[in-house]
Specification:
Chain lengths: 513, 167
């Protein structure tokens, strides 16, 4: 046994010692597939496109995903995602762009129709298509279309579908269809926008349409305008915008939203690159603010981020659901102030240490609002374990204080993320994430002296362990394949005898031009 | 055992041998803190993002299409409520209220699918009286955070049409 162990260590050491070359990039840049640690999405954007006419470029992408989930209920789904972008096609003195991103899915357990209060048709549950629909919500109907339709779930979404006429009319960009607005919140609407770019001193956007929701009938339309004043000489950008959301039910559901923001760039080449911002908003009757700084001190390899944000006043009545800060969902949000700071320090070319702190203080108690302290940190090893390797060790701790009749609770998360770049066509990733929650079943303290039941409020101490491994392979330029496996263990389901460990395998095939 | 070691050794050798120089296509800002910083950077200068991400595929992938790995089944079924109380602005990165509404207003949780759940007779097996609502509700309107009130914002009506009793 000992001999075998020595042999293994020897082989592993040999593996590490063999010469290889790191992926070429600026210091501390993460590998291209680093986002796979955030989620398992395998969509790959097109790169070069095909020639279209004299000047146009046509990019086309089709992605197929098959997901299989193994647990108490086996489930599988097939997903198709199509996208198209035509850019720079000449029209008159200007150009035309066309954008389309859309998807659809078939799931073997669509969970449509669901249960009733009396338990009828309660057997169907779970969906590999989207883990949101597991377990708890047996009668969820995924989207507004499905609710209206009542029996079919294609999980069909159009993310964007629009045509842009750029400078076909002098000094003007026109966009129509399902568009992302060029404003601070990047609202998505079914409608149109006009962008006026007549001089160097200001740019103006005017727009109107129906805000997009995949989940509810918002019964809302919006009109608005956004003004941008760039001051190139000082690196300043000033923006102001106004939006009016109109609801079929009227009253306070008709909501005014006004926002302003100033960005100040402070760049000294090879010494520091930074941006300071100040933003304020009036959403209905609530006033919000935020100020922050993001800076990279190149000379010392130091990164600094800091922010302060808050809500000065609150909405006590109705507010349009598209811009609500969840007031109608969990009770009115109280006035608060929160802030945080994050520091990263590079040590040689191989190590980065980061530490951050965040806190929130609420001025009054509402259902949803809790004061908390958060501390988080990371240690990144860049090409130290092996060349072309990026390893990040992470920890994140939330401590939520006891407050009046509400109990304290906490969360600790720890784990690692690692990506290995093998060639310019193959990358692999692996990660483990352990989360511990300590809380009570109801956030309200029990008061046995008033006859309240203690049993239901017993303290919970539960872990979730999630591990994943995956790889991406590009055999030819126009094809990218991805395989990802995720394992999840949850105390919650063990203790409630609801659900076993969950194994999810997803396979992605991208065909892109 | 020797054969296994040999296979492992050869496989490791193969991996190490084919590791060649690889060009990263990312700019220098895209380090491991970019996950936290990219939101403000996009607000500051979206047109710079669109120089590479003109199809918005990457934005849509994370913010609209696929849930993050942090959204484990425990998070989805239980602890998202806790975390939403700490900092809802994080949720707003991807979600608006319509998403919350789609479960909390239009769907029943698993407990409600149990036979007899809707029964108002406390002794009936499975009745909702024997679960969350066993906690006396002094005043429905000003004791928030009871389990029922997560979805039931106002004092509900019974099947007979009367207001739910309070203890």
């Amino acid at each position: 046994m000992r001999k075998s162990l020595i042999n293994l260590i020897t082989v592993f050491s040999l593996f590490l010692a063999l010469p290889a070359f790191a992926y070429v990039g600026d210091a501390y840049v993460t590998p291209d597939s680093w986002s796979k640690h955030v989620n398992a999405n395998g969509i790959k954007a097109s790169l070069n496109g095909l020639d279209f006419g004299d000047s146009g470029i046509l990019k086309i992408g089709l992605t197929t995903r098959a997901t299989m989930k193994f647990g108490e209920d086996e489930d599988w789904s097939i997903y198709q995602y199509a996208r198209l972008r035509l850019s720079d096609a000449k029209l008159g003195q200007g150009t035309v762009n066309v954008n389309l991103n859309m998807r659809g899915a078939y799931d073997s357990l669509p969970s449509i129709g669901g249960s009733t209060m009396d338990g009828i048709s309660a057997s169907q549950q779970g969906s590999s298509y989207n883990q949101f629909y597991d377990g708890l919500y047996t009668s969820r109907k995924y989207d507004e279309y499905t609710r209206l339709n009542g029996h079919y779930d294609g999980n069909f979404r159009i993310y964007q579908a629009n045509v842009e006429f750029k400078k076909v009319v002098p000094y003007t960009d026109i966009a129509a269809g399902r568009i992302y607005l060029n404003n601070l919140d990047m609202y998505k609407i079914d409608g149109g926008s006009l962008h006026f770019d007549t001089c160097d001193y200001f740019k103006l956007d005017v727009y109107g349409g129906l805000p997009v929701s995949y989940y509810s009938n918002l019964k809302t339309s919006v009109v608005g305008a956004a003004l941008e004043v760039p001051i190139a000489v000082s690196g300043t950008k000033i923006r102001a915008e106004y939006n009016y959301f109109m609801h079929e039910d009227g009253g306070d559901f008709n909501t005014h939203v006004a926002k302003g923001r100033i960005d100040q760039n402070l760049n000294f080449p090879d010494i520091i690159s930074s941006n300071i911002y100040l933003e304020g908003a009036i959403v209905g009757k609530a006033m919000l603010y935020e100020a922050g700084l993001d800076a990279n001190i190149d000379a010392s390899r130091t990164g600094v981020s800091a922010y302060i944000a808050g809500q000065y006043d609150k909405n006590t009545g109705d507010i349009n659901p598209y811009v609500s800060m969840y007031e109608d969902m969990l009770g009115g949000s109280s006035e608060y102030v929160m802030g945080g700071v994050m520091l990263t320090q590079g040590i040689t070319d191989y190590v980065i240490v980061g530490v951050g702190w965040e806190t929130r203080f609420n001025f009054s108690e509402a259902y949803g609002d809790r004061d908390y302290q958060r501390v988080f940190g990371n240690v990144d090893l860049v090409g130290l374990i092996h060349k072309n390797n990026y390893l990040s060790l992470i920890v994140d701790w939330y401590d939520v204080a006891e407050y009046k009749r509400q109990d304290s609770n906490s969360k600790v998360m720890g784990g690692f993320r690692m990506t290995q770049v093998f060639t310019d066509r193959i990358e692999g990733w692996v990660g483990v994430n352990v989360q511990n929650y300590q809380y009570r079943n109801s956030p309200i303290k029990s008061y046995p002296q008033y006859g309240e039941e203690v049993l239901n409020l017993s303290e919970r101490n539960e872990n979730t362990t999630m591990a994943y491994i995956g790889a991406m392979y590009r055999p030819v330029d126009w094809c990218v394949l991805q395989l990802d496996y995720t394992y999840e263990y949850a105390d919650l389901f063990k203790s409630a005898d609801l659900q076993p460990d969950i194994h999810t395998v997803s396979i992605w095939a991208n065909f892109i031009w | 055992m020797k054969m296994k070691l040999l296979i492992i050794g050869l496989f490791s050798l193969l991996i190490a041998s084919v590791t060649l120089a690889v060009d990263s296509t990312k700019p220098s800002t895209h380090n491991s803190t970019w996950e936290k910083q990219h939101g403000q950077a996009a607000k500051t200068n979206m047109s710079e993002c669109l120089m590479c991400h003109e199809e918005r595929s990457e934005c849509i992938a994370c913010h609209e299409d696929t849930a993050p790995r942090s959204h484990t089944v425990t998070f989805v079924n239980k602890t998202h409520g806790l975390e939403a109380r700490w900092n809802r602005t994080t949720c707003q990165t991807c979600h608006k209220q319509d998403f919350c509404d789609s479960c909390h207003e239009t769907a029943y949780p698993m407990s409600h699918a149990r036979a007899n759940f809707a029964s108002g007779v406390q002794t009936d097996p499975g009745s909702h009286c024997g679960t969350s609502c066993v906690i006396p509700v002094g005043n429905w309107s000003n004791t928030p955070a009871k389990n029922c009130i997560v979805c039931h914002k106002t004092r509900p009506m019974t099947k007979a049409g009367a207001l739910h009793t309070m203890k």
